[in-house]
UniProtKB/TrEMBL annotation:
Enzyme class: transferase
Matching Pfam families: Sua5_yciO_yrdC
Name of the protein in its database record: L-threonylcarbamoyladenylate synthase
Transmembrane segments: none
Organism: Streptomyces brevispora
NCBIfam families: L-threonylcarbamoyladenylate synthase
EC number, UniProt record: 2.7.7.87
Length: 206
């Protein structure tokens, strides 16, 4: 059964965040809120966590996982960014965007797109995730909590607990955070491509 934590959305309890971070370091798969919708997350190098996310979401090896980063400095360790892209991403973060970029050698191979060698990165504007990332000291490997054959992610922590009780280890509930996933911007080819129009305003990239 998954452990369930009710966390304040603006002032997350430090002790609870520390407990969740310890669970992630120990290999736990976590369902947690973001500034766009709920996500599944595990430790960066966890092969078991990746396999479990793929199984829950029925994903193939072409799926772009996302590294949820605390800040721009951390993001820069895991992707290659030229000056123009740097400025564009800097202006849009933190926020409801995922950026696809060429990965550095810091990213485990199993996370990379098999042909492009790219990975998704984002910096969330959500107090609970920021507190968790600060406690972890590294990115959280993540994927939107969207189940197969469903059009929208689940929005309630208690519902996630009920439905995924035996598939995740921890559920962090800080209330409804919406159903619209991030806007996805691909910079990996040298040309900007809007892959998915979501919660983030695309006008700044058009």
């Amino acid at each position: 059964m998954a452990k369930y934590f009710d966390v304040h959305p603006e002032n997350p309890q430090r002790r609870t965040i520390s407990t969740v971070a310890d669970s992630i370091r120990s290999g736990a798969l976590v369902a947690y809120p973001t500034d766009s919708c709920y996500a599944l997350g595990c430790q960066l190098g966890s092969r078991d966590g990746i396999s479990r996310i793929r199984a829950i979401r029925d994903l193939d090896d072409r799926h772009h996982f996302t590294l949820m980063c605390q800040n721009f400095s951390q993001l820069g360790q895991f992707v290659q960014i030229d000056n123009d892209v740097f400025r564009a991403i800097k202006a849009a973060t933190p926020g409801k965007y995922t950026f696809i970029l060429p990965a550095t050698k810091e990213v485990p191979r199993q996370l990379l797109h098999p042909k492009k060698k790219t990975v998704g990165v984002r910096i969330p504007d959500h107090a609970v995730v920021q507190a968790l990332l600060s406690e972890l000291g590294e990115p959280l490997l993540s994927s939107t909590l969207l189940l197969p054959d469903e059009e929208e992610p689940m929005t309630q922590g208690w519902e996630i607990k009920e439905r995924l009780d035996h598939e995740v280890d921890v559920v962090v509930d800080s209330g409804d955070c919406g159903t619209e996933p991030t806007t996805v911007i691909d910079f990996s080819s040298g040309e900007l491509e809007i892959v998915r129009r979501g919660a983030g305003d695309t006008s700044r990239f058009e």
